[in-house]
Amino acid sequence: xxxxxxxxxxxxxxxxxxxxxxxxxxxxxxxxxxxxxxxxxxxxxxxxxxxxxxxxxxxxxxxxxxxxxxxxxxxxxxxxxxxxxxxxxxxxxxxxxxxxxxxxxxxxxxxxxxxxxxxxxxxxxxxxxxxxxxxxxxxxxxxxxxxxxxxxxxxxxxxxxxxxxxxxxxxxxxxxxxxxxxxxxxxxxxxxxxxxxxxxxxxxxxxxxxxxxxxxxxxxxxxxxxxxxxxxxxxxxxxxxxxxxxxxxxxxxxxxxxxxxxxxxxxxxxxxxxxxxxxxxxxxxxxxxxxxxxxxxxxxxxxxxxxxxxxxxxxxxxxxxxxxxxxxxxxxxxxxxxxxxxxxxxxxxxxxxxxxxxxxxxxxxxxxxxxxxxxxxxxxxxxxxxxxxxxxxxxxxxxxxxxxxxxxxxxxxxxxxxxxxxxxxxxxxxxxxxxxxxxxxxxxxxxxxxxxxxxxxxxxxxxxxxxxxxxxxxxxxxxxxxxxxxxxxxxxxxxxxxxxxxxxxxxxxxxxxxxxxxxxxxxxxxxxxxxxxxxxxxxxxxxxxxxxxxxxxxxxxxxxxxxxxxxxxxx
Length: 571
Description:
Helix content is 28%, strand content 30%. By secondary structure, the chain is an alpha+beta fold.
């Protein structure tokens, strides 16, 4: 019995490297709908902050009810000689405070959202009532620009400041002067704040600071005020960095701090008094640090214009984005009582404020799935997680899906006999008609088959992708039958032109370059004696030679780039 004629299996090209995003990348790319706001005075965006959660809820309660106040719906942006207050919900400008005599450097809103403290280059610290914008308190004890000011999360009347006069000062709102002056830095102090409560304590007693002397210091306000009230006090712990410290960020546990010095971020253990890790990911100085995802992620911004996200387990980069100008400040703005990430606010040297917002609804479901997948990865149960997800996906299919597959694997029972009929089935009758080049190949007319596939008739199947795969399928079949040289022989300049044109177009595709090289080498071997006899043939060979030289140059540049990246990774 004659075997049925089956169509020639189409050649499959190698798969391109997957561009599928990880759940972490999908999460950070869900911050969309960018809003670009220029500074009114085209001044750099110096600082971005949001009221922190109080560590002592009893200190921040509403007067109408004895329940903790809701998180304030605002965040601050400091630029030029003004502090702008934006709504977290609408991203609109709520208020602007411009009562400064010099460039404003930093602003901090108290946890109840009623009071704002701000500092400027004149060494002045002012406390404002947010609703009326009235000045409640003014301190001028700093002699140089004040770069940092922050309210205590535990005491609503306490705040800390850091200045270029090399001092860190602790303030109390009812007092006319600072409560304590912390002395120990030998250069400008550019960042300071309160350490979070460790182990669920009250917090607000430990402070941190970082300066251009390369020192990160931890201070204890209880020891300082008891030993020398109103006077100088020494630090209880000091870390020495190799470069000026631009920013210091404590983690939520209160036992670890991150210090940004030049293009590195050091992870410091306050309990053990030693560094744990050094993050080397930026090319230029890191200027800003912020927490995200409930303290499980750290976001950094640098003068290279890159914002990068790191996980706090292995300190690996899991996300990031590029901005058109050097980043001076950033903040991951949260909303709601559960403090979910809502906006990524980035301040640039050019005076642009970028606010990107995370979509809600479907994105929340994906975030929960991302957390489950990351936890399964950490626990070594990723396979179980994948099986569980596949089972859930199968359960989502309707009853019609199971009904469609019912009986597909039936092979007969007992004395039943299943006969495989040789007569054409319905699917065989609907089989696609054989292409002309397939018929020529089956009949052994190899040259005619090659001409037919390179110059297909005007049919609906002659799309560029289909024609390319059909040509590759035919050439592969000719190679397997050792008939490639036969199909290329006996041609003139007219019939040879489509073959060389296909080689010229396809040799830039790395997936088919081996076939292009084999076809080109056969043509040069067969027709090398005809060079110089045809202007058309000589022109096609010259064009192919130029294209090959271009691809060789690209390959050399790729290897050079790979070598440079390898040296950077080693260093």
